[in-house]
């Protein structure tokens, strides 16, 4: 497994994490985690619940500091940045949170427009139009714009959250569990959407997930986080050949097998 | 921001070549701010061929692509033929993506409602609100009847808990405020009474005003602010987290578990609190009377005995259960009116407090009128 694990430091990596350590009290969450996300790829970070993948994401988007290590996004070190210093970077990436985190007092259009209003000098009419473009890009019907998040279904809420993450045309998109809590049909829609957005807008996407179907269908490379380390990185086909017990359990459990067979059938 | 970071546009019109539009620079969300106004003012030809030259575009994102797409659509609607030249492949595909995804129909915002529509809608909503409130009260009355038929439906634990939070825990604040109110009334009355040498009547003044009017009203207002708001916030949050639906699914009526115990507890607690604030209020007045008017405690209490009839006392305490039902009903009703957002919890809580205080005072005024008709 070492040949796959030892990813060489990529020169122009969009996200580059080196020697990351995180502890909560005595509990070790990450121990010497290394990974890099290349430009234009869809990168999935997977692992069992509670293995620290969401923590890793939160550390990358400067919401939570690790104990030690280095996280470089667009070549800038992000550890230790305060909100003001992080702002120029944050404007270059978009984040979709697991439960959407849409502002419940604003409509979907207002949720998207709010970001544009805050960070651009565009006129009100153009902002409304651009918000409608983003909503259309995520595959929502036009009449979803004036609705409040509470009036949307789970899948539509995810799409609306994605529209808000895309508001400033980011180069990099972080998705936290993009398909969690969705039925298989809506989840398949999200798989396609993620791929289409990457192809259409030239985005780099880093996502945290435990949806095997999503990995097979959308991810270019996958890193498996377990016991505090990255136990394997590579394409799904490469990972499936690795004989690490954690990875094996993950890919050859009943769900893993079904997803793999499905993926082979489609090729 | 340097000129290279912003979007550039040059337009040339020639008889032979038609209109040439050259796009350059960064057509990005940060760069197109000035361009929007410029495009509005451009005098486009009525017809003919328009060529858009994108060979000098340095960057194009979805916002810029939309602006370009909107311009193209505007031109085509006028009857021009639009040709796009020299666009880099990835920009061209982005433009196509935007063109394909964004339908023309969905772009126009819904027209704002006119004044009459809004006024009518408001009036209708107020009527509906009153009707809903009535039906809510009726639903709870039915639940109460059921509870009388099936005694095991009484939620004693909830009633006792509410008695403690809404009643017992309100003792310090209601007592203190009523004590201060007694002091204020005695102090204000003292000057007038002294002028006529009628010092002893301070007992009538403080006693009657506190017992009959101020103490029930003051207590009700404090409890509305303390407990009525808490009812709304609690039920509202449970509504947001779907706990109310869960209760229904399990087969427990929300009125039975969440509303009745509150109404019953407040029905008991508010009269008791009123009796207590009667005492503290008169105590305040008594101390002020001794300090300002040299009326000793014994003299004051002797006079009080004559001043307050049993009837005025009962009228005062008798209002409290009415206020209690108003406060608990409105607090709970507004909680059920919350719709799935954090904002809504705050809004309904405000409405709940304002409405219950308003209704308590209106009811108090109505009762005064009724009592004066009845010569009580």
Tags for this model:
heterodimer, A: 267 residues, alpha/beta, Rossmann fold, 2 domains, six-stranded mixed beta sheet, four-stranded antiparallel beta sheet, 11 helices, 41% helix, disordered N terminus, B: 376 residues, Transcription Regulator spoIIAA, four-stranded mixed beta sheet, 4 strands, 72% helix, elongated
**Distance N to C terminus of chain B:** 80 Å
Task: Name the assembly state.
Answer: heterodimer
What percent of residues of chain B are in strands? 5-15%
- Which whole number gives the mean pLDDT of chain A? 82
Strand order of the largest sheet of chain B: 1-2-3-4
Shape of chain B: elongated
Give the overall pLDDT of chain B as a whole number.
Answer: 87
Annotated CATH architecture of the largest domain in chain A: 3-Layer(aba) Sandwich
Order of helices and strands of chain B: EEHEHEHHHHHHHHHH
Give me the side-by-side strand order of the main sheet of chain A.
6-7-8-3-9-10
Q: Greatest contact pair?
A: A-B, 31 and 32 residues
Describe the secondary-structure layout.
The complex is a heterodimer of chains A (267) and B (376).
Chain A: H1 2-5, E1 15-24, E2 27-37, E3 42-46, H2 53-60, E4 68-73, E5 76-77, H3 83-90, E6 93-96, H4 108-119, H5 124-137, H6 154-165, E7 172-176, H7 184-201, E8 204-208, H8 212-218, E9 221-226, E10 229-234, H9 236-241, H10 245-252, H11 254-266
Parallel strand pairs in A: 3-8, 3-9, 6-7, 7-8
Antiparallel strand pairs in A: 1-2, 1-4, 4-5, 9-10
Helix pairs in contact in A: 4-5, 4-6, 5-6, 7-8, 8-11, 10-11
Chain B: E1 7-14, E2 18-27, H1 33-41, E3 48-60, H2 62-78, E4 80-85, H3 89-101, H4 115-149, H5 156-167, H6 171-196, H7 202-240, H8 243-250, H9 254-293, H10 297-307, H11 310-336, H12 342-373
Parallel strand pairs in B: 2-3, 3-4
Antiparallel strand pairs in B: 1-2
Helix pairs in contact in B: 2-3, 4-9, 5-9, 6-7, 6-9, 7-9, 7-10, 7-11, 7-12, 9-11, 11-12
């Amino acid at each position: 497994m070492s040949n796959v694990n030892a990813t060489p430091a990529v020169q122009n990596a969009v996200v580059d994490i080196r020697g990351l350590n995180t502890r909560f009290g005595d509990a070790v969450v990450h121990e010497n985690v290394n990974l890099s996300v290349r430009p234009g790829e869809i990168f999935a970070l997977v692992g069992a619940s509670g293995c620290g993948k969401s923590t890793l994401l939160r550390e990358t988007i400067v919401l939570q500091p690790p104990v030690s290590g280095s996280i470089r996004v667009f070549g800038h070190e992000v550890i230790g940045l305060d909100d003001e210093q992080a702002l120029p970077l944050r404007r270059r990436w978009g984040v979709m949170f697991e439960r959407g985190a849409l502002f419940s007092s604003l409509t979907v259009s207002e949720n998207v427009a709010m970001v544009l209003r805050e960070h651009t000098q565009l006129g009100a009419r153009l902002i409304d139009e651009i918000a409608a473009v983003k909503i259309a890009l995520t595959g929502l019907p036009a009449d979803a714009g004036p609705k409040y998040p509470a009036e949307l279904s789970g899948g539509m809420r995810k799409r609306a959250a994605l529209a808000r993450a895309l508001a400033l045309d980011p180069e990099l998109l972080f998705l936290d569990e993009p398909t969690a809590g969705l039925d298989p049909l809506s989840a398949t829609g999200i798989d396609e959407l993620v791929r289409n957005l990457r192809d259409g807008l030239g985005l780099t996407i880093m996502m945290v997930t435990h949806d095997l179907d999503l990995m097979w269908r959308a991810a270019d490379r996958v890193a498996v986080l377990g016991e505090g380390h990255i136990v394997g990185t590579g394409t799904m086909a490469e990972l499936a050949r690795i004989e690490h017990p954690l990875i094996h359990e993950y890919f050859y459990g009943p769900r893993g097998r079904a997803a793999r067979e499905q993926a082979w059938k489609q090729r | 921001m340097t000129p290279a970071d912003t979007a550039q546009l040059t337009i040339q019109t020639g008889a032979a070549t038609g209109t040439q539009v050259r796009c350059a620079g960064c057509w990005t969300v940060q760069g197109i701010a000035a361009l929007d106004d410029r495009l509005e003012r451009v005098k486009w030809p009525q017809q003919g061929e328009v060529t858009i030259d994108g060979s000098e575009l340095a960057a194009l994102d979805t916002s810029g692509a939309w602006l370009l797409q909107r311009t193209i659509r505007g031109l085509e609607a006028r009857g021009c033929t639009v040709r796009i030249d020299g666009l880099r492949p990835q920009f061209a595909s982005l433009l196509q993506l935007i063109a394909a995804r964004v339908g023309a129909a969905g772009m126009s915002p819904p027209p704002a409602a006119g004044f009459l529509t809004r006024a009518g809608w408001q009036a209708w909503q107020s009527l509906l609100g009153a009707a809903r409130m009535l039906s809510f009260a009726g639903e709870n009355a039915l639940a109460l009847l059921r509870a009388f038929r099936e005694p095991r439906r009484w939620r004693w634990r909830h009633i006792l808990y509410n008695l403690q939070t809404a009643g017992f825990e309100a003792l310090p604040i209601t007592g203190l405020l009523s004590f201060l109110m007694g002091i204020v009334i005695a102090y204000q009355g003292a000057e007038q009474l002294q002028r006529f040498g009628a010092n002893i009547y301070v007992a009538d003044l403080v006693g009657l005003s506190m017992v009959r009017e101020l103490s029930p009203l003051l207590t009700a207002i404090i409890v509305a602010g303390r407990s009525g708001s808490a009812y709304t916030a609690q039920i509202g949050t449970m509504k947001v987290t779907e706990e109310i639906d869960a209760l229904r699914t399990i087969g427990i009526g929300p009125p039975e578990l969440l509303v009745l115990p509150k109404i019953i507890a407040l029905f008991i607690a508010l009269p008791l609190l009123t009796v207590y604030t009667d005492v503290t209020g008169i105590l305040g007045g008594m101390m002020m009377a001794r300090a300002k008017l040299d009326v000793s405690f014994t003299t004051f209490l002797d006079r009080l005995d004559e001043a307050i009839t049993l009837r005025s006392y009962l009228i005062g305490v008798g209002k409290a259960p009415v206020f209690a039902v108003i406060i608990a009903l409105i607090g709970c009703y507004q909680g059920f009116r919350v719709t799935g957002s954090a904002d809504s919890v705050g809004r309904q809580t405000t409405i709940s407090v304002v409405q219950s205080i308003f209704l308590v005072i209106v009811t108090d005024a109505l009762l005064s009128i009724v009592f004066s008709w009845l010569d009580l």
